[in-house]
Amino acid sequence: QVTLVESGGGLVQAGGSLRLSCTASGSIFSLYNMGWYRQAPGKQFELVATAFSSGSTNYADSLKGRFTISRDNAKSTVYLQMNSLKPDDTAVYYCNAQYLLRPEQYWGQGTQVSVSS
Q: How far apart are alpha carbons 33 and 78 in whole angstroms?
């Protein structure tokens, strides 16, 4: 069982930055691919970025260049640095952990990001 705790959301003006953190407990962090998803009002649930156990990353095409995902295995934490935020980035952001060795995944509770124009 893995518990994911997110932090770092909040209200920011357009053009500003936020860094989200997600700390995992309960298992070996390095054995999980870690991702960030978001749910905006009236929009589809969306994959934002993934930090793979291998160290590679990928991003939603629309977010490349503004968002950066990183992970610190020693701290069991994955980060999402969000720059040049836009009102369209307003959403609840969820952390996700996918186990490498079997189809098993976990979700954080979500953190609200609100971007004012």
A: 10
Query: Which residues have C-beta within 8 Å of that of residue 51, sequence separation ≥ 6?
Result: 33, 34, 35, 57, 69, 70, 71, 78
Distances in Å between the Cα of 53 and the Cα atoms of 7, 27, 78, 115 are: 21, 14, 11, 31
Q: pLDDT tens digits, residue range 57-93?
A: 999 999 989 999 999 999 999 999 999 999 999 999 9
Interacting residues of 40 by C-beta distance below 8 A, sequence separation 6+: 46, 88, 90, 91, 92
Indicate if the pLDDT at residue 4 is higher than 90. Answer: yes
Residue 63, both tokens: 């977010």
First to last CA, the chain: 40
